[in-house]
Amino acid sequence: GNSVTQMEGPVTLSEEAFLTINCTYTATGYPSLFWYVQYPGEGLQLLLKATKADDKGSNKGFEATYRKETTSFHLEKGSVQVSDSAVYFCALTIPSGGGADGLTFGKGTHLIIQP
Amino acid sequence: DTEVTQTPKHLVMGMTNKKSLKCEQHMGHRAMYWYKQKAKKPPELMFVYSYEKLSINESVPSRFSPECPNSSLLNLHLHALQPEDSALYLCASSQESSGSSYEQYFGPGTRLTVT
User: Fold this and answer.
1) Which residue does chain B place closest to A93, by CA atoms?
2) Residue A12, pLDDT score
3) How many other CB atoms are there within 10 angstroms of residue A69's CB atom?
């Protein structure tokens, strides 16, 4: 089956620090990869995506590169802000002609940024 | 516009009540999803509708009954719930077409409390 493994945290950083959240996956097909962010009391927001090897997804200063050889999709940001404090989920789905499928999520990483 | 709306935002119900959760999207997406999310956990897939037909039911108890009246609307009918069903219920939608990456867009969720 499919699975996603990510560091669970909490991860606590100071403002302006460099962020890396590791994510690795196993998949039965060729997955699309995603990072979602969830702020307290809210739904999930799509942060970025990548659909094929070596694609780099980016948004709001966050980046992640689809590495097929290491089955990884690590999230990075050069300088975090207090407003980045949230839970981050790495996820995948297998696009196919067979129809829509649910997302497979990692367990989530709680990020806390201190001023 | 990538908005998925959900009503109500909060719901408190007794174990003998019948209630419904509603979800709406106007992005022309033909796949819609219900997820259940417990505190500090990732979302768990419950149901998938593809072109208004139920395509995936993840062995959800019959006290949860989904309905897709048209391509923009998704309901979740609740009856005789248990306290352990208290959770955040998330709706999502995605395109379903060849070449799509199937990224899902989530609503803000309904916070359900069963007393």
Assistant:
1) B102
2) 97
3) 7
- Cross-chain Cβ contact A34/B103 below 8 Å: yes
User: What pLDDT is recorded for position B99?
Assistant: 61
Q: What pLDDT is recorded for position B98?
A: 60
Please write down the HEC assignment for all residues of chain A. Answer: CCEEEECCCCEEEECCCCEEECEEEECCCCCEEEEEEECCCCCEEEEEEECCCCCEEEECCEEEECECCCCECCEEECCCCHHHCEEEEEEEECCCCCCCCCCEECCCEEEEEEC
Scanning every residue of chain A, which has its alpha carbon at the shortest distance from the alpha carbon of B96? A100
Which chain B residue has the Cα nearest residue A43? B108
Cβ distance A99 to B35 less than 8 Å, yes or no, reads no
Cβ-Cβ contacts under 8 Å, B60 against chain A? none
Closest Cβ opposite residue A97 in set B43, B98, B104: B98
Low-confidence ranges of chain B (pLDDT < 50): none
Of the listed ranges A49-58, A63-72, B45-54, B96-105, the one predicted with least confidence: B96-105
